[in-house]
Design goal:
The protein is of the alpha+beta class and 346 residues long. The chain is 29% helix and 24% strand.
Amino acid sequence: MPHFMTLPRHIQEGEKLHPEATGELSAILNQLGLAAKVISLEVNKAGLVDILGFTGDSNVHGEQVKKLDIFAHDIMIKAMDHGGHFCVMASEEEEDIIHIPAHHKIGKYVLLFDPLDGSSNIDVNVSIGTIFSVYKRISKDGKPGTLEDCLQEGYKQVAAGYIVYGSSTILVYTAGHGVHGFTLDPAFGEFLLSHPNMKIPEKGRIYSINEGNYKYWDNGLKKYIKYLQDADNRGVKPYTSRYIGSMVADVHRNLIYGGIYMYPADKRSPNGKLRLMYECNPMAFIIEAAGGRAIDGNQRILEVKPTSLHQRIPIFIGSKDDVDMVEKFLKEDVDFSKSHTTVKVH
């Protein structure tokens, strides 16, 4: 790995491999890196200034909005709406699509983002993050973007990524070919390549799920969790439960160590709780590019046809073997007492 491989340099080097590249996607990723630096700075000093706590408002999902959510939302818009690259944007914090100001150039790309994933953890200093997703427009060039531009299947993404604000700030992105991670060096304010060509292990030993919802799950999922916990009955080490409560942080850990993250549908939330456009699609695009899988229990996440901007969906995402296994339990409703013979153990 070359020393001091910065995010802009890495993007520029990648362009050399694609003579057809126009440089627009590189400019977008660089601007996203700038937005990440600004948000990271504010997150890191959140405990020192009057930025914590609720605004008193609720977002489109009926959830209380925290001040830092609004700050991150505004920074993303200000950083991205003037470069002439986008025709429309959409945010988890905004009910409708976000139009590009009339006095700015209209571009050919679409940006969707969750400005601050896991924001319920802000006040307790737990890792949170930003998730973003980039598509090419499908409406007529030169005109303002439309809702249809935003409602595209996940496999049509041209780039996706996330930023984790934790003990260090890490930006992970993919343009469909390879996943790369960059750590922000606070000494000179630059993202340096720290995790080149990230690959998720084919099988992990970590599962991430909110087990407080256990009684509301379908039987197949209950049996799968029991299967992981009782693995020693099959002569292998049981899985370890790790659940942070910020999807971006849980998936990032499993990308490095292997494992599975699950936010299923249940009796209280029959459509799941996570948002397809802002969370599930971009994270699935990244994990698949790293060699993993992401499903909603019935089909590949990236093939789900969106029907609304804030559509919710169940998700099972992570190492290929682990997602394969939960899929068998969900579809076959395997009898746990016989699971060591009816389900292939990898």
